[in-house]
Amino acid sequence: MNWTRLVGLAAAGLALCGCAHTANASGPTQNPGASTHSTHQTANKPAGNRDSAPTRTPFTPALELTGNLDARPGQLVGIRLDFLTRAQGRDAVTAHSPAFNEPVPLRWQDDDSYSATHPLAMTDKPGWYPLNVSVAGHTVAHDRIHVLPSKRPSFTVTFASEVARPGELLWLNFDDLYPGERGTDFTVRSTALHQPVRLVHDERYDFSNPRAFSASTELAPVLADGTYTFTLYGPHGHRIAQKPVTIRASRPGDADYLGKAHGPDLYDPTLGYADAPHRHDFTVGPAGRVAVMWHDAVPDPGEETRLTAMSPAFTQVLRLHRDDSKSADGDDPRYLNTATIRTGLKPGRYPVTIVAHHHRVIKVGYVTVTTRQTH
């Protein structure tokens, strides 16, 4: 066999398996629970040109694992092999690890990568487990999986403030990743809630834990101070766990007792808040319109969805909405909406009232209705 044919065959073998003359390098990725190991190779001299300098392939297979660090038995591990064409992989890319119950085939993803998601065996013991990825039986990359001991199922109730407030948003979570646990029908009940809340698995937030169940909900807006029990029920109404939560309304001296409220500011909606004079008095004609703005740096929990402005001059109660526009930069949080003046009103001065902080804050502005349309 001549020199040209020998070198050509060697180069073809390297391109397929990527395993000869290799060195592994690892580094952090954007995902804190992932690690990356790449295989580097040096190509032989092109066949038929012995005197040319050695060249390097631009890309070699790069392995990225997600969820492989500090994992628990049953947790999902993401496996991704980049920089491998379908012609090279030929649907023969497989991950092997004693942490899995079986070899894991990786599938082509149409973006020069092969990937798969697979659970760790529930029987895994704590420790480090090797993982190798092969193409047609040739190992091209490797990494490790760190497994921690299993944890008993846990039920948690969390909220943003130091003390749970009536009307506050809270999160309910049940971590059921434990050998032998089954079922997906979980519900939380409490007299502090409007109604029972069903927990569900959300893959967007619980990617690595296939048995994480959660939901968000609001406490009832009016609750007496005290300790309330949150009870988690499983399938067929079986009680699994209970969690006591202390709920207390804000009191004088608390930062959120009266918030930092001011308003209502009234102005011409056609000009906008930045350009129109805004004051607590506004003159408008029948069927005219008036914009209402309210400021409060520390509203009561849940109050953002309940703020209203009321006036006998309005066609209906005006629900105020959070202003998330760019014009609110440096002037946030604030809430606004535009009201329509009733027709057939007698000329006069009519109050515009906003009630906040469970009636602890009541502020009033005025619209003066004229006999003619002014805006």
TrEMBL record:
Source species: Streptomyces yunnanensis
Name the source's superkingdom: Bacteria
Which spans does this entry mark as compositional bias, Polar residues? Answer: 26-44
Entry keyword annotation includes Signal: yes
Q: Where is this region: Disordered?
A: 26-60
UniProt-recorded name of the protein: Uncharacterized protein
Where would one find the signal peptide in this protein?
1-25
> Could you tell me the keywords of this UniProt record?
Signal
